[in-house]
Amino acid sequence: MWTSPEAVIAILGMALVTFVIKAGGLLLANRLPQHGFAAAWLKHIPGAVLASLVAPALVTGSAAEVIAAAVTTLVYVTTRSLFPAMAGGVLAVYLARLWLAA
Amino acid sequence: MSDAATPRFSDPFFAGARACIPVVISVAAYGVVWGVLARGAGVSLLEVIMMSGLVFAGSAQFVALDLWTTTPATLPIGPLILAALIINLRYLLLTATLRPLFRPGQQVKGALTMFIVSDETWAITLGAMAKGRGTAAFLLGGGVLAYTTWLATAVIGHTLGSAIDDPRSYGLDFAFTATFLVLLLGMWKGKGDVIPWLVAALAAIVTAKMIPGSWYILIGGMVGSLAGAIADKVRHVD
């Protein structure tokens, strides 16, 4: 399967809103709040969205996911790089599932 | 009339590309991971090329994979676009700071150049601007390097992904959560992040239990970021 009309519409829509925002920031530069409530709100959005993605996955998962999340965090804080942290997390969840199933 | 900044286009262009090499290595790592996960989520190679080539926004593309469905009829088009809009809203603040790179008469050129801006190249360009070396060509140089790397590594990742038949049996389903967790940890700026992240997490957990679908991502994100802004305001007033 190459693609579908639905996927093309979704991707073009995502591309359009992303470009409009990026260009909008430049064009509206003199009218946008650089400080204050609205600026603080915009600044906090990405972190809040990512926290929303992670939290339910950890709560609904087994103890294996929680252990693996702790390992991922530990490796990332130590190495500051994506690959070792992700590999550590995946390995931890694999071993923890074997251990919990035993 | 700043002749010093515009003798040749290629000098600042390649200077920008060179300055962005360290962050582009990280872009490459995320690109491969995104490609592998995209294949796992049922995104075709053509769709990977279209999304990385046209949307070109890392966090939004990772979130899109979480919403993606393999059957076109159930693809949540509205939520996909809405999620991209909300996650990318922060670019309003980022690209606004690049205004000094363009003269008042260069609005169209400037707006078109913004397509190639990403968090990484924005940060490097802003650093160069502080030292007087940041120009539109510098930004474009870093941007083109990051863009081609992101596109190429996503294709590589999607191709590598075919070697994995059942992700769950190797624990690879956790790669998603691990990547989101790493993206989140990388955004840590200090104690001001505790309240928005905690409120977002709680709101998302409650919403996920009550409302079917992926609304918990948007609801958690909006409630958490508002809580963060309110907390910031309270702290500054006191």
Automatic annotation (TrEMBL), chain A:
InterPro entries: Brnchd-chn_aa_trnsp_AzlD
Sequence intervals crossing the membrane: 6-28, 49-76, 82-100
Keyword Membrane belongs to the record: yes
Record keywords: Membrane, Transmembrane, Transmembrane helix
Protein name per UniProt: Uncharacterized membrane protein
UniProt organism field: Devosia psychrophila
Automatic annotation (TrEMBL), chain B:
Bilayer disposition of the protein: Multi-pass membrane protein
Residue spans crossing the bilayer: 12-33, 45-65, 77-98, 136-158, 170-188, 194-218
Record-level GO cellular component terms: plasma membrane
UniProt superkingdom: Bacteria
UniProt-listed InterPro entries: Brnchd-chn_aa_trnsp_permease (IPR011606)
Single Gene Ontology BP annotation: L-valine transmembrane transport
Keywords: Cell membrane, Membrane, Transmembrane, Transmembrane helix, Transport
Compartments reported by the entry: Cell membrane
Family indicated by similarity: Belongs to the AzlC family.
Protein name, entry field: 4-azaleucine resistance probable transporter AzlC
Species in which this protein is naturally found: Devosia psychrophila
Lineage: Bacteria, Pseudomonadati, Pseudomonadota, Alphaproteobacteria, Hyphomicrobiales
